[in-house]
């Protein structure tokens, strides 16, 4: 059987080609981009942990060759998702970070911090599927609090930090009070924080998704950035290997495979 796996992780895609071999221990090749970030280090550790438990051999830096499976990370603009394709290139399995769950957890956090009432803005990216799920989960959580209203959701798709700062600044310039902001990516978080600081506004809560080093530093140093959710690379790596191993054995995989995200908050 031939399988192709496409894994999109925080702007990267991973493609795997799998075929049967008559060896005792399945051999799985793994090729990552030239990236030494902590994300890829944790992803690698998660994959290795699963491979050790399942008695598989991973070859980091390998190419297809005689591998039973080949996982190749390519730079891409996707979300935290793995799709496994069969020989006919039709999807047969998927592994993804549960962004909807992350959105729900952040929504519940905002509701607690606002004590069940207030105005919320979302710096949205409706053209990105994973963000749509993230925002849907956030809105689902807030739906249980009738005194919390989403008063604005400007799109910041592909606009980066500057667009996020501009859109947030525009919201702050109106007479509409804003008590909390949900930034759907790292650039949105940085833009929101910059706009709030520039306007000299106090008491606005910011929550975000998948912060980078600068955003994490802001989280650690200030009170405005209250919580964030992020994919768990170790759990993702482990689950990818588990699913590939199951497919090599011809075992069924319950769809979709959702990997919980981690939520970090100050209270």
What features would you highlight for this structure?
6-stranded mixed beta sheet; Rossmann fold; 7 helices; 267 residues; 2 domains; alpha/beta
Structural topology:
Blueprint: E1 3-8, E2 12-18, E3 27-31, H1 38-53, E4 57-60, E5 69-75, E6 81-85, E7 91-97, H2 99-113, E8 118-123, H3 129-142, E9 148-152, H4 160-172, E10 180-183, H5 186-199, E11 205-209, H6 213-221, E12 225-230, H7 233-248, E13 257-259, E14 262-265
Parallel strand pairs: 3-4, 3-5, 7-13, 8-9, 8-10, 10-11, 11-12
Antiparallel strand pairs: 1-2, 1-6, 2-5, 6-7, 12-14
Helix pairs in contact: 1-7, 2-3, 4-5
Protein architecture, described:
There is one protein chain. The chain has 267 residues and is of the alpha/beta class. Helix content is 36%, strand content 28%. The protein contains seven helices and 14 strands. It is elongated.
Contiguous low-pLDDT stretches (5 residues minimum) are 1-17, 74-79, 81-92
Terminal CA distance reads 50 Å
CATH C-level class of the largest domain is: Alpha Beta
CATH topology of the largest domain: Rossmann fold
User: How many helices?
Assistant: 7
Look at the structure and name the CATH superfamily of the largest domain. Answer: Response regulator
What's this entry about, in short?
This protein has 267 residues and is an alpha/beta fold. Helices cover 36% and strands 28% of the residues.
């Amino acid at each position: 059987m031939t399988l192709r796996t496409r894994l999109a992780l925080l702007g990267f895609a991973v493609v795997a080609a799998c075929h049967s071999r008559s060896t005792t221990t399945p051999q799985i090749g793994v090729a990552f981009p030239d990236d030494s970030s902590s994300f890829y280090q944790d992803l690698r550790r998660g994959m290795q942990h699963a491979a050790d438990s399942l008695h598989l051999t991973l070859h980091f830096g390998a190419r297809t060759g005689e591998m039973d499976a080949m996982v190749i990370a390519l730079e891409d603009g996707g979300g935290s998702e793995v799709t496994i394709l069969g020989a006919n290139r039709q999807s047969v399995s998927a592994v993804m970070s549960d962004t909807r769950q992350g959105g729900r957890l952040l929504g519940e956090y905002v509701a607690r911090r606002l004590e069940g009432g207030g105005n919320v803005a979302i710096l949205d990216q409706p053209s990105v599927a994973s963000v749509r799920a993230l925002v849907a989960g956030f809105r689902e959580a807030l739906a249980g609090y009738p005194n919390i209203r989403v008063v604005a959701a400007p799109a910041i798709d592909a606009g980066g930090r500057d667009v996020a700062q501009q859109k947030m600044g525009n919201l702050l310039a109106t007479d509409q009070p804003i008590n909390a902001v949900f930034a759907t990516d790292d650039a949105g978080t940085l833009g929101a924080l910059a706009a709030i600081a520039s306007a000299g506004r106090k008491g606005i809560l910011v929550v975000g998704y998948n912060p980078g080093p600068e955003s994490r530093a802001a989280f650690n140093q200030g009170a405005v950035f209250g919580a964030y959710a992020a994919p768990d690379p170790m759990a993702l790596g482990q689950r990818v290997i588990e699913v590939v191993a199951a497919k090599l054995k011809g075992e069924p995989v319950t769809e979709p495979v959702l990997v919980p995200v981690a939520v970090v908050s100050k209270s």
